[in-house]
Amino acid sequence: MDMDQAAVYFIDDESQVLGALRRALRLRLKGWKMVFESSPCHALELMSETAPWVVVVDKKMPEIDGADFLQNVKDLYPETVRVILSGDISHETVVESSGVAHLLLSKPFELEEIVEVVERAVCLRSFQLAEDQRIAIGELDSLPILPTNYNALVTYLDSVEEPDYARVAELMSHDVAVLSKILQLANSAFWGAISPVYSAHDAVVRLGHDLVRKLVLFFELYTTQSDSDLHNRLFVNAERVAEKCTELANLSGLKKPEIERAYFTGLLHNIGELVIAERELSIAPDLAGSFLLKLWGFEQKIVDSIRYQASPENSNEEDVVLYQLKIAKSLVQENPDNISTDLFLAEVDLNILKNAQLSDYARSCP
Half-sphere exposure of residue 247, counting CA atoms within 13 Å on the CB side? Predict the structure, then answer.
C-alpha cells in the first residue's frame, strides 16, 4: 500500500457532483491522486492500494451513511483528514458527525472550500510528528466542529473585499448569548471604551470584523458546547490569560494588530484541553489544539503559539507574542497572591523578558 502518495477521495452517490468536482479540481490539485467514487464500499477497496490523506464524503448515501463510512476510514486510516458534506447542518447532523469528522461542510459548497480543506490536509505531515503521535491525533473522538454561526460569518467575510458592518452584525446576532458577551467586551475599559455601545453593529465598528469573527468562534466553542465545570473553568482561565496577554502587549509597545493577536492567542491557549477533555489520550493538549487550529485554517503564528506555548525556544520563529503568552500564563497560574504585574516581572528570567520585549519596561519599574 502506498502511504506517501498525497491522495484525496471524494465519495458521493450523485454523479453530477463528482463530475463537477473532477472538472474543477483537475488543474487545482496537481500532484494529488484524486479518486471520485459513487460506491463507498469500492472506495474502501481502492484505499487498500493507496492510503487516503483526505476523504470527503456525502452524509446521506443509499449504500451507507457518510458518518458510518468515515468511522470505517477512521479505524483503518486514523491519520486521514475526514470531511462530511451535508445539505442538513442541523444539531442532530453535527452531533452524528462530530465523532468521526474533522470538518463539516454544507451543501451546496464553494469550490474554494474544498481546495482549502485539501491543502490543509498536509498539516498532519507538516507537523513532523512520530507515527504514534499522528495516529493519536487522528483517533481523537468528538473534535469540536466549527460552529455554524462562525462558518456563516467566515463564508461571508471571505466572499467580499470590503465587509458590510451591518451584515457582519446580523450574522453575529444569531446567537444571543454570544452577542451579549461581545457587547460586554466592547463596553469594557479593557478595549479603551469611552462611550457605551448597545448594538451588534456598534460592537463590530468598535472591535473590527476580524476580531469579532474570532470572538464568535471562542464564545461558541467555550460556552455553548457544554455546561460542564471543566468547560467553565477553561473559559474563565482563557479570559484571564487573554487579558494578561493584552496587558503585556501594551506594555511592550506592540501595534494594534499584534495586540489583537496576543489577545486571541490567550483566549485559545487551552483549546487543546477542550479537545481532549475527559478522554484518556496519549497526546499533549498543546499539540491537539494546534492541530485543530491548523485544520481550521488559522494563521501559522497562532498555530505555533498554541503548539510551543510551554517551550517557546523550540519554535522556529522568535515570536514576541509567544513569549508574552508564557509570562501571561505564569501571571495567572503561579501568582496566588495576585501581586502586581510590575513586581511579577522582576522575578521573570531575563532571557524570557528580552524575547518578550519587556526588558526595558521591567528595568523602568521602581
Answer: 16
**Per-domain residue ranges for the chain?**
7-121, 148-364
- For residue 147 the three cell numbers come to 460552529
pTM exceeds 0.90, yes or no: no
Which one is the CATH code of 148-364: 3.30.450.20, 1.10.3210.10, 3.30.450.40, 2.60.40.10?
1.10.3210.10
Nearest 10 degrees: Cα torsion 316, 319, 321, 325 = 40
Note whether 123 and 269 are within 8 A (CB): no
Could you tell me which CATH number the domain at 7-121 has? 3.40.50.2300
Cα separation, 290 vs 85, in Å, equals 24
b or e along 159-196 (b: 16 or more beta carbons within 10 Å of the residue's beta carbon)? eeeebebebbbbbbbebeebbebbbebbbeeeeeeeee
Q: Rounded to whole angstroms, how far apart are CA atoms 150 and 157?
A: 11
Give, in order, the Cα–Cα distances in Å from 256 to each of 169, 206, 252, 295, 341: 22, 13, 12, 26, 21
- What is the pLDDT tens value at each position of the chain, 366 positions in all? 656 778 899 999 888 888 888 888 887 777 788 999 999 999 999 999 999 988 999 888 888 888 889 889 988 888 888 888 877 655 566 556 666 777 777 777 777 778 877 777 666 666 666 667 666 666 665 555 566 677 778 778 877 888 888 888 888 777 777 777 788 777 766 666 567 777 888 888 888 888 888 888 888 777 755 557 777 888 889 989 999 999 999 999 999 889 889 998 998 999 888 777 756 666 788 888 888 788 777 888 898 999 999 999 988 888 999 999 999 999 998 876 677 888 888 888 899 999 999 998 888 876
**What gap in Å lies between CA 149 and CA 164, rounded to an integer?**
17
Q: Give CA–CA dist 174/180, Å, rounded.
A: 11
**Backbone φ/ψ region at 311: left (φ over 0), alpha (ψ -120 to 50), beta:** beta
